[in-house]
Amino acid sequence: MIADLGFFSLLTAFLLALYGCAAALVGVRRNDPKWVASARAAALLSFPLLTISALSLIYSLINLDFQIEYVARVTSHSMPLYLRATALWGGQAGSLLFWSWLMSAFASAAMLRDWRRDRDLQPWVIVVCLATLGFFLSLVIFFENPFARMWQGVTGAVWTSIWQPTGALPYIPFDGNGLNPLLRHPGMIIHPPMLYLGFVSFVIPFAFAIAALVTGRSDDRWIRVTRRWTLVAWLFLSLGLLLGSRWAYDVLGWGGYWGWDPVEIAAFMPWLTGTAFLHSVMIQEKRALFKHWNLLLIILTYDLVIFGTFLTRSGVLSSVHAFAQSAIGPMFFAFISITLIASLALLSRRWQILKSDVQMTSMLSREALFLLNNFLFISILIICFLGVIFPLASEIITGQQITVGPVYYESATGPLWAALLLLMGVAPLSAWRVSTARTLGRAMWWPFIGSLLVLAALLFSGLRNPGALLGFWLCAFVVLVTLYEFWRGARARSQSKSEGFGLALWRLVGRNRRRYGGYFIHLGVVLIAIGIIGIEFFQQETQGRLAIGERLELGEYAIEYDSLAEWQTDDGRLIDRAVLNLHKGGEFLRQIYPRQDFYMEAQQPMTIPGMHSTWESDVYVLLVGWEPIAADSATFKMFVNPLVNWVWMGGLVFIIGTLVAAWPEPDSALAILPAAGQERRRSAEARG
Amino acid sequence: MSSTTLVRPNAGGLGRSKFLIGGLLILAAVIYLIISSAAAGAQFFFTVDELLARGPDAVGKPARIAGAVLGDSIVYDPESLTLSFTIVHMPADTRLINDEGGLAAALDAAVVDSTRNRLDVVYIGVKPDLLKHAAEAIVSGELGEDGMFHATELLLRCPTRYEEALPGQAG
C-alpha cells in the first residue's frame, strides 16, 4: 500500500538522520574523512526518501484514502484536485512532514557545494542539519503521524494507529472533513510553503555558524559561505509574510491586512532577527566587528524559526490557555531550550577568541548606525515577544491572565519603525570608521531640502495629521537619499569610464549587486511604509442597510444597491452575490460584487469583499446581511483604504531588490555555490 | 561620499562611555515605550464566573472573556448591526479543559449545562462567520451597568471541525 511505502521511507529517513549525526561525530573524533563521507551520503539520501514519503501522502490525499486519519481530516470529496494535493500542508501532521522534506532538500543542497576549503566545518554542518531533521521526523513518526490509519473494533470504537490492531477492521469514513473554507484561497495555498522555505533555509547559516564555533574559527568564513542562503531565506520569509497579509485582506473581511495575532507575530519574529543579521554581518565583513553579536543573532533566528513553526501550526497561543494542550508542545519546548542553551554555551566558550581588536570610534560612522539599526530591530523583537508571552507570564506571576492587543504593538513599535526609516535615510550616506556631523550633513544636504519641499507640498494640500506628516516626510527623505545615491554612483562612473549615464547606471548596479539590491529593498520598504501610513491614519469606514436603489456614502465614494442573486455551485457552496453601483464624486464608476459563500458541508460562510482597487485607494465593501428570498434590502460595510496598494507594490519592489542582491555574480552564474566559493578564494588570495 | 580616514582617533574611555550613555538612553526609551503601551493595551482575562464574582467592581473596566456560545441566543439585527448572544462559563485552565476531554468536549459540556453562569454579550458590527453554537467566543470590552457585556472585539474558535487555528474573521 502506498501509505506503507510512505511510512517506511519516513522511518528510514529518520534512522538515516540519526546514523548521519553519529557518523559525522565519529568522523570528527577519529579524524576519518570516510565517516564524514558516509554521513554526507546519509544527508543526501534523506531527500529522495522524504520525497517518496511526501509523494505517497499527496497520492493518498488526491485519491481520498479516508482510512488515513490525516486525509479524512483535511480533504473531502468536494475539494478540487489542486486543493487535495496542497492539503499536504493543510494540517499539523502534513505540515511537519512538509517541513522535514524541505529541510532534507536544503541539507542535500548544502552537501552538494564545494567543501574543499571547509573540510573542518562539514561534519558539524551535517550534525546540525540532521539533528534538526531528526527532531522533526521524530515528531512526525511518534506524535503526529500523517500515515496513521483508523480502525474499528468489534465494540464499534474507532481508534487511530499505524498498525492494524488485532481483531479490528479498517474504518473508512464516507467523506472527509475537508479543509477549512477560509484556507481554500490561492494566497493561503502558497503562503505556508513560502514561510516554511524561509524558515528552513535559515537552518543552513545557523549550521555553519555552529560549525565555526565548534571548530574555533574566528574568521567570517561562515558568513561569506552562507550569505546567499541567508538572503534566500529572508526573501522567502518576506514573501510568506506578504502573502499572508494579502490573504487576510482578501479573505478575513475586516478591512485590514495585519492584526498582530500571535501566529502572525510568530512568523514575524525570525524575520526581525534575520533582518538585523543581514545588516550586521556587513559590519563583520568590512570591519571585523560584532562577531559575538552575529552569532547570537543567527542562534536567535534559528530558535525563533523553530518556535514559529510550532506556533503557526499548533495555534497554542491563539487559544490563550492551552500551552501544553498539544502533544508536541513540550517536545518543542524541550528542543528549543536544548538548542538555545547548547548554542549559547558554545558561544561563551569561544568568547575570547572572537574578541575583536578593532573598536568603534565614531557615533555617526556606518558601523555605529548599523549597530543602532540592530538595536531597534531587537527592541521590536522584544516588544513582540513580550506581547506574545504576556498572557502566559502574567498568569504565572499574578495568577491573573492579562493580554495585550494591537494597541500595545502599534504604540510600542510605531516610534521604533519611524526611527528605522530615518536610519535608512542617514546610514547609506555615512562613512565607515569615521563620520562626523559635518561630513554627514554635507552628504545629505540635497535630499534633506528635497524632503522638506515634499513636506511643504503635503501641508499645502491640507494634510494636518502630525504622525502622518512625520511618516511621509521620512519616506520622502529615504527615497531622495536612495535615488541620490544611484545618481551619484552612476555619474561618477560615467565620468571616470566615459560611459553614457544609462549604461553607467546599469553597470553600477550590476557590479555592486549587494549594495544597490539593498537600496532597491529600501525603496520597497518605503512604498510599504507609505501604504501602512495611509491605511493606519486615514482608513474610513461606514455601514448601513440599503433598499434597492438606495445609496451609502463614504468620502467621495458612494455605493448603490442594485440587486442580489443566490445560486449553488458544484463544489458545495451557496453563493449570495450583491451587485453594487460604485460612484465617485457623483459619477458612475463601475459595478462591484461583494459576496458571501456558504460552504454547506462545513456549515460555514466566507465573506469576500467587493473591491475597487486603484493606486490611490481601495474601496472595500462587505456584504453583511440581506433579506431572504426577496432581497429587497441588504446590509453592507464599506471601507475606504487609502494607499493600501502601495503595500503590495512595495512588496514587489522589495522582492526584486532581494533578487538583485542575491543574484550570483556574472562569472559564477553557472554553478552557484561551488563557483562562488572559488571566486571568493581568488579574491581572498588577491587581497592577502 | 564624505572623506574616509584611516587614522583612528583615540578610542579611550571617552569613546566607550559615549556609546554606553547613548545605548542606555535608547534602552530607557524602549522600556518606557513597552510599559506605557502595555498599560494602554492591557486587558484582564476572566472566565464568566470570575467576572461575575467581581460584582459591581467589574463594571466599566476593560476585560477579555472566553466562553461557549449558545446557538439559540444569537440575535442579529442587520439594520443596526447589533449582534447579541449568550456565552456560558467554561474553565480557562488547560488541565481542567483536558479533564473534560479537550476543548471541543469542554465546549459541548458547557452549552448543555444549565447550572453554569451565563453572560449576555452585545457587539456592534459585522456578524462573524464563525459565530455558531458551541464555538468558543473570546470577547473584549467591558461590563455595562445593564449587566450586559459590551464587546468591542470578538474572536471565535471552532475546534470541533478543523485543527488549524485561524485568526477571527470580521472581528
Description:
The complex is a heterodimer of chains A (688) and B (171). Chain A starts with a helix and ends with a helix. Helix content of chain A is 62%, strand content 13%. Chain A is flat. The longest helix of chain A has 33 residues, at 366-398. With 688 residues, chain A is of the alpha+beta class. In chain A, strands 6, 7, 8, 9, 10 and 11 form a six-stranded antiparallel β-sheet that branches. In chain A, strands 5-14-13-12 form a four-stranded antiparallel β-sheet. Chain A has 21 helices and 14 strands. Chain B is an alpha+beta fold and 171 residues long. A five-stranded mixed β-barrel of chain B has the order 2-4-5-7-6. The longest helix of chain B is centred in the N-terminal third of the chain and has 29 residues, at 13-41. Chain B is elongated. Classes of the chains: A alpha+beta (688), B alpha+beta (171). Chains A and B meet through helix 9, helix 13, strand 4, helix 14 and helix 15 of A and helix 1, strand 1, helix 3 and strand 6 of B.
Based on CA atoms alone, the radius of gyration of chain B comes out at 24 Å
Distance between the first and last residues' Cα of chain A: 60 Å
Shape of chain A: flat
Low-confidence stretches of chain A: 318-324, 667-688
Summarize the amount of helix of chain A as a percent range.
55-70%
Dominant shape of chain B: elongated
Largest sheet of chain A: 6 strands, antiparallel
What is the gyration radius of chain A calculated from CA atoms? 28 Å
How many β strands of chain A by DSSP?
A: 14
Q: Approximately how much beta-strand content do the residues of chain B carry?
A: 25-35%
Which structural class fits the helix and strand makeup of chain A? alpha+beta
